Design the sequence.
């Protein structure tokens, strides 16, 4: 289990580090006459996309960590589900760069970015389902998974954000603020589950 967790942590660390590389490349193309202020102003959208994705990946990693911390072993199905989650995390720098370069005014950009978040949250849900259906990996035969009504909150809110971002273009990426409701809704549906 430690090997799988360490591998996952390393992949996430690389993915989160890759987020800044397009900004660094852009800064290296700066001409001698540009001031530091000009460099930051010209890369403002990329920097905002970087910060957003850093927070998104960090939040997904924290959830992933909490989920896997509760199990003592792994199964083939858990490894496959974990690889699906890692795929969604490794993909994240691409929509981040598109968002930074193209901005969020294009519907397709919003769809790709939020859909990649949806893939990550659904993968985490899959990991929890696999754990729930594999008693052999539970510690002391105690089921370590939160109630289903608690674990579907995040994917449901990401999906709702996607719908709002597409259906109401002027809201755009601000639709992701719906994710702030994850904790309160989870707590209401399953008291104590939001703290895990």
Sequence:
């Amino acid at each position: 289990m430690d090997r799988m967790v360490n591998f996952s942590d390393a992949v996430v660390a690389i993915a989160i580090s890759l987020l800044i590389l397009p900004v660094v490349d852009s800064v290296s193309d700066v001409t001698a006459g540009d001031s530091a202020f000009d460099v930051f102003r010209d890369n403002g959208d990329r920097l905002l996309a970087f910060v957003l994705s850093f927070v998104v990946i960090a939040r997904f990693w924290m959830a992933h960590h909490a989920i896997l911390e509760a199990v003592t072993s792994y199964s083939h199905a858990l490894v496959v589900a974990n690889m699906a989650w890692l795929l969604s995390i490794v993909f994240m720098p691409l929509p981040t760069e598109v968002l930074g370069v193209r901005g969020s005014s294009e519907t397709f950009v919003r769809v790709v970015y939020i859909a990649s978040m949806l893939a990550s949250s659904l993968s985490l849900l899959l990991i929890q389902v696999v754990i729930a259906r594999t008693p052999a990996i539970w510690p002391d035969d105690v089921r370590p998974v939160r109630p289903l009504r608690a674990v579907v909150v995040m994917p449901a809110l990401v999906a709702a954000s996607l719908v709002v971002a597409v259906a109401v273009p002027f809201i755009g990426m601000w639709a992701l603020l719906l994710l702030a409701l994850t904790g309160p809704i989870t707590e209401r549906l399953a008291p104590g589950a939001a703290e895990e």
